[in-house]
Structure formats: structure tokens, C-alpha cells
Amino acid sequence: MTEQFDFRAQVNRSFDRAAAFTRHHPTLLAQVRECNSVYYMSFPIKRDDGTIEVIEAWRAEHSHHRLPTKGGIRFSMTVNRDEVAALAALMTFKCALVDVPFGGAKGGVRIARHKYSEGELERITRRYTFELKRKNFIGPGCDVPAPDYGTGPREMSWIVDTYLSLSGGELNALACVTGKPVTQGGIRGRLEATGRGVCYGIRECCSIAEDMKRLKLSTGVEGKRLVVQGLGNVGYHAAKFLEEEGAVLVGIAEYEGAVSAPNGLKLEELVAHRKETGTILDFPGATNLPNSSDALELDCDILIPAALENQITTKNASAIKAKIVGEAANGPTTEDADAILRQRGVLILPDIYLNAGGVTVSYFEWLKNLSHVRFGRLQKRYEERAHKGLLDALAKLHGDQPSDHETPEFARGADEIDLVNSGLEETMAVAYREIVDRKTRLGNDIDMRTAAMVNAIDKVAVTYEELGIFP
Question: Which residue, 115, 211, 351, 389, has most beta carbons within 10 Å?
Fold first, then answer.
């Protein structure tokens, strides 16, 4: 049988497998499964040389069980209707799984961004925003985009600026998009949020002694051999934070190739090498691999595919040597490959859980924009004085003089970045324990992806039931 690479079909197969373990009405499950609306648009832009090009773009809103809907915008030649619909579905389940009160959405513009100048990208982004606003597919209470593959804070700044010019003084207009620069209403920690969430999720996984014993690994991240596919924002930050936790980076793959070093690579040195030479290849002390995809088959403990979908397939699943696969990308493992890995005893941390850090911190940014106050502004100084007072009281009890020096680090009040990271860590920890609990209740033969999807489906379905739409 030929393996199915239709991304939307992959998501639906995963949904159907999990839905069989729920008790919801089939009509309700059909509603949860399907994408509510997809907006296709085409518009002309003028290139720098004066020629006119027609751009194709989409925005999918998968579920309106909660509003606003939420999901990134990607710039890629792979973008099409089915891809954005599938990604929007994953966003619905991802938000539900980590208790972020959004429906799922996704957008995309079909361009190869490296072929366009900054001015051309700006014109494309602004016109795309105009088209979304015209059809009510963007706004603080209806649909809130964010960065995704091929986009970042710069594109989000163009979006919010365009929306502001069209919104007529709307009070909460800054909340129309997340992932913005901090100076334009963004939040500290958003840029690295997805990668940090990947680290928190893997750390939580590695803390469970029973699972690590089954995989013949020690508990904790320290000393675990790590391979990362993709050195973009997510892959870089995941590698960075896991390296700080003590993991040993033994392989990195990018579009130009891959390198490996059994004794470990230093991430920042590799990044500096790439910046200087334009490639990760020929890094001193590392071995070049013939194909970028070869890195997926390196001997390691943890493999993190952080690029695009359909990277682990039936063609290479049997050659994967990792004991833990952490899906930092959306849909990197096909359903058939997933079955092969599970049969071999590989622990898969599913995408709807592991890369939920981005939408979690986007939620915090959205709340910040609606409240019009920076997190930590109200309580930081109060906390510092309270902590300092406690330290001074303890000093007096021991006969010491209160310190007039600068407040120690452990007595410092929480700033925005501290609260953001604390909230993200709590979210990833609670969600992981809920998945493990569901897996235990369903039986040990149930995999983590199915358990996570069952949790997500239940939360979405219950919302519909509480709305009185379904009995």
C-alpha cells in the first residue's frame, strides 16, 4: 500500500483513532473534526522591477467553539487549502489540550520568501492583512494570527500597523495579532516560546522514572544525546535550552545539509560558523552527512524534528535510532510511520502537545494587550520589598544587621519574562501529566498521541455540549 502524504488526511486519521475512545455523539464528533471555513484570496502586488504578480493566499478557521480563533501565518510554496485546514485543526486541538481558550486557525501565503525583497514582502503582508480585515478574518475578538514558518516579529509589526490604520481607533486593536515586537505591544519571551516549551515538555517526559526505565535511559535531560532537524527559531531555541539543561547536541540538520559529532557540538559556535560561511557544513570537529535527512537516522536518545510536516515516513521510520521523538514541528511524522515507531517502542511526544509553547505565550500576549498593562508592573516592587523584609527579619533573628546592598536575585520581584516563563512551564507540566493520566486510564497499549488527542477532543466537545448545540 502506498503511504498517504495528504496532510489533512493524516490529521483526520489521528482524530478518528482517538475519537473511537470517546463517548460523544457521532454528529458532534463530525462537527469537531471538520474545518468551519476557509477563505481563499488572490491579489496583485507590484515587484521592485515594476512587474505585477498575482499572489495566492488562504486563511482557515477550523473551530468557532471558542473565540477568537488563533493560528500562525506561514510564507511557503507548500501552502494550499488542505495544508492550512489541517494546520488549523491541529491548532484547535493544541489550544484545547493546554487550556488556551481559542479555536484553531491557520493562514498562509504561497511564496518563496527568499525570492522577494523586504519591500515586496511588506507589500504582500499588508495587502494580505487588508484582505483578512475586509472579510472579518482578523481582529482581537474573531481571529488572531501569529508567526509561523517563514514569518516573524517583522511581519507581525506590518500586520498590526495595517490593522490599526483600518480599525478606526478600536481600543483593543493591538490584540489583533501576537508575536509582535515588544515595542509594538508584544510580550517578552514570545520569540523563544515554542522552543522553550519543547524543552519543558521533554524535561517533563524525562522526569518520569517508569518511562525512562522502559527506554533504558536515566531520568533527567542531562547527558542525553540530542539531534535537531531545523535550525530556525523553534529548532534553535529548543537546542539552546536543552543544551543548557545538559543535553549533548550530536547532530544538526538544515536545508543545505547536516553535520554530526558523537562527542557533541557547541550550538553557538555552529551558529557563528553558519553566519560566517553561509552553511553548517564543514564545521570544525564535525562530519558532513550526504543528505540533510540522514540526520534523522543518527544514533541518539532524543530526536527533534523542527522543520516541516512528513519528515519521518515509512521510508525511514525503521532506521530511526532515537528512543524519544519530540515533534517540535507540525505533523513531522506520518500516521504509518507513527505506527512503525510505536511498534518499535519509541516514545513519541506529539506535536499538539510539544509545540504548544508558542500559542500559550501568544495567549499571554493577547491578555496583555486586552488589559493594557505589562505583566509584573503592579506587583514587582511590592514583592521585592516583601522578600527584602523577610530577609532582614531573618538576619535580625541571627543577630546580623539588615543588608543595605542590592536585593539578591532570589529576593527579586517577578518581571514580565519571569511570569511568562513560569506560566509556560506550568502549562506544559500540567498538560503532560493530564496526557499521562489519560494514557494510564485507557491502557498501556495506548500511545501518547492518541491520549493527547482524546483529551483535546473531550475539551472541545464538552464546550459544544455546554453551549447547548448538541445534546
Answer: 351
